[in-house]
Known about the structure:
CATH superfamily of chain A: NADH:ubiquinone/plastoquinone oxidoreductase, chain 3
Low-confidence stretches of chain B: none
CATH class of chain A: Mainly Alpha
Radius of gyration of chain A: 26 Å
Largest sheet of chain A: none
CATH topology of chain A: Methane Monooxygenase Hydroxylase, Chain G, domain 1
Shape of chain B: globular
Number of domains of chain B: 1
Helix content of chain B: over 70%
Strand content of chain B: under 5%
Structural class of chain A: mainly alpha
Radius of gyration of chain B: 22 Å
Order of helices and strands of chain B: HHHEEHHHHHHHHHHHHHHHHH
Number of strands of chain A: 0
Oligomer: heterotrimer
Strand order of the largest sheet of chain B: 1-2
Structural class of chain B: mainly alpha
CATH architecture of chain A: Up-down Bundle
Number of domains of chain A: 1
Helix content of chain A: 55-70%
Largest interface: A-C, 52 and 53 residues
Mean pLDDT of chain A: 81
Amino acid sequence: MPTLTTPIPANPAADWLPVAVFLVTAVLFAAVLLWIPRLIAPRHPTPDKARPYECGERVSGEFWQQIHIGYYLFALVFIIFDVEVVFLWPYVRVLGGRLIPQGLGLFVFFDLLLFVGILVVALVYAWRKGVLRWE
Amino acid sequence: MTTTWRELGYLTPELVVLLGAAAVLLLDLFLPRGRRRVLGGVALVPLGVALGWVLRALWAQSGGPSQLHKVFGALLLRDPYSLGFDVVFLVAAILGVLLSLRYVEREALPAGEYYALTLFAVFGMMMMAMSAELITLFISYEILSLAVYVLAGIARGRAVSAEASLKYFLLGAFASGFLVYGIALVYGATGTTVLYDPLGQSASTISGLILERGLFGNALLLAGLALLVVGIAFKAAIVPFHAWVPDVYEGAPLPVTAFMSAGVKAAAFAAFARLLFGGFRNLGEVWQPVLWVLAVLTMVLGNAAAIRQQNVKRMLAYSSIAHAGYLLVALAAYTARDVAIGSVLYYALTYTAMGVGAFAILLVVGQEGEANQELSDYRGLASRHPWAAAAMGLFMISLAGFPLTAGFLGKFYILNAALRADLDGLAVVLGLASVVSWYYYLRVVWFMYMTEVPKAAVRPISRATSLGVAVAVAALLVIALGVFPSTALAVAQMAGHTLLPLGY
Amino acid sequence: MSAHQLAFLVLGVLILVSALMVVTVRNLVHAALFLILCFAGVAGLYVLLQAEFLAVAQVLIYIGAITVLILFGIMLTRKITGGAQPPLASHWKAAGAGAGAFLLLLLYVAMTGQWQVSDQPPMDSTTTLGLALVTRYVLPFELASVVLLAALVGAVLLARDETR
């Protein structure tokens, strides 16, 4: 394999410290915002106040409804094509630079075309089976 | 680029099957409702073409020195071994599709997906037989698994089918997990995922590195090997990883069960042999005792459970576990590997013919919704429908291993390999288990020929042409392999040899 | 203890605790949320191993798509609280013993086995993966697309409404 010229910084901790700080700040922010009302907000619960909010209407019937199956099919199709995109990303990184050996460029292109082509068949299947339509 | 085209040429049968799967799928999407019946026929075309290519390639190689081609680097091996197993897979698939033609219509199963998934499964099987590298093996294992999980549950109207699919999927996901864990540990121990190089050109393969670095006692490697064996043994229906077989075989639609019992098992054993005799051949003293124990357990439990079954479909399911045990005896014959691998291939072919044939008769006698499959439903079949009974009788005695049938010869060659490897105990167990199996196989024959049933209780059998053709082909294969085995056996032995590295 | 080891400890505890919670809480939605936490911990482990691409892929696919699918699947059922029975299967003691034995075996293997440690410096993971996929592992790459196709066909087949 050809040698790579992208060095890794010698101190990965420095790179990831901002990420860690960001995560901790986000968690603290949410926690604090939830905790402060618990400290200072008045709490006088009544039965009416404890019911779920429905824009002022009185609530009736079962609260937990079965959702439309379309949501599930949507997530299903999303996973497949999400994985496809994740597979494409390293390819894109390599195609962009000058790291592919000579003469291999066309092969790589057809390779990619085949990969996407097989998943186009998947898309056509999903389309014709009405998965992409919302009833 | 030219080398790539040539390499792709070696993969012709697999590509044909894959294109066929895509074609069936697309055709199903754009065909009007009424024309769906043609899909089964469309599915047979790529299977037939692939089988023709494979047979021609095998024929061309049986005269001269075996040709072995490394495709895509060290990932796949196009050798007579893989060609031989491709024959088994394609025969199982063609017979399976023939069995499905009438069934899919009658039970209103989604035809396009059914045939497309069958073709995907065959593609996965063929890739598994060719894989010389663990990642490729895993991905082809997954293609096969996913297709078969869905096929088991494709009869959506029946609860048992959905239950079979769910059980298969959950347990199969665990098995895949074990397989991947094993791959990770083996990679951790050796630094590569390539199993072996039969041409001896590269030593940075798992088998080469084991020898070079003396990794014989390496805990990582051994644990990885154990997990790999577990993962593959699940698919091969070996005890104690067989728990899914009875429920899944019983719940899945009959043609799917027929296809699974032959094809999936053969694919698992194809991969098993490459794994053990190719990649981990230097650890033979380690895995041979393990296989010995597993073989005994499988043969004993498979036969013991089959005796108690009254439902013929379930009986055939348990008996297929027993047959996996017989195959495992051949794999355990490590020191006689030059004849053992060929005997595995030969037995896989005979079992496909016998097993799928038996399931075909089940379809012939069976009624709508898979009723009519108890032993009692076979009463007096000989007097009512002599040809069906004769075919079933042939399959039963062949499965039991009576002389002059393919089943007997298959077991004979396995016994031969076992005795050559000084596995006398295992050979004795195999013989005893076969005798025990006579009971439940001959019981069916007894019901058919020796009992009568009042006219009123007689149900009509299915007279579909496709079923008739499938039964005839299977019966012919069983007779041919039993009476004229020499060509097939010679090819199988030659194929078995090519698995082993040079100078082995 | 270096920062690396501390991070590994924290992530390890996070993963194990959230995994335990996934299988023991009675409310299915809470279980799914703990699963998200578990996956996030695994992504962190990938970062520690300098496989950043894998970490991002883990977050995108596992947390972004799979847990969403799980949650939708949960919402398709009517009862999300387990009710009176505990979420563990009836023979959990035997299963626990078996799993515990397996764990001890794996620990023994991990401690005593000799790992092949590479002496090369770590490289940019995305580009390395890309090159490997293009040169050596072309075939598994294409096979992966076949897996995805088969999975989609199978899943849509089993999940769709039978009104067509």
